[in-house]
Amino acid sequence: MPPSRRSAASRSRYAGSYGTAVDALALTRRPLLSAGIGAHPTHSIHQEQAISKGFDAMRPPISAMYAATRIISLTTILSCVLLLGSVAAILADGMRDDIGVSDIGIVLGSKVLPDGQSSARLRARLDRAAELYQRGMFRHIIVSGGFGTEGFSEAARMADYLSMHGKVPRASLILDEHGDTAADTARNAAAIMRSHGYRSALVITQYFHISRSRYALRREGITGVHSAHARYAEARDVYSIARELVALPAYWLHSP
Question: Is 199 inside any structural domain?
Fold first, then answer.
């Protein structure tokens, strides 16, 4: 082949190869550009700014987060203050005896041991009632309680303890064997008092139980209510105080 024709053919093949390579590069670059790879630097900056704005839109404003944190903190503090204030009020009310001459004394029942003996908590209530009886604060006592899981009548065991130890004459004791709760005791005691023409009462129970017991009696129409707490405390009182924090508001909410 003449030299001129060889040169033309070589140039033609070179041009064809170059065109194919350019086309291949264009096909390869197109999806990369669409994905943002290899684009102009200003394009990448704009894309990053757009992504950042998207995340900022999803993130709550700092002022809103700060306000929510403050509200949660204040709510927690107020709840703690309210809780501590309620505990202090129950303790202060229960420890501050309001002893006065009354028509009748009312002792709320408590646990009887499996052997039929009164528990230390119950004995403390009965001893305080006997002390006040001997001081002339009342002439009759209602011993109120239900039947525990041990199968004993709390009221009967309470009467036995007071009379057998010579603390209170049996004739001065009135049994209420259906005082399963403070509300039951108040209801039954109010009926007994009305039947005897009694108007005032002195309730004896644990210090944490005084507020609710006195309120229950007043709710049943007994306006002259005095109180005295048993001189006894134990670790279980923590649970009992917590229970009163729930029981007292429930009494108020269900008041007629």
Answer: yes
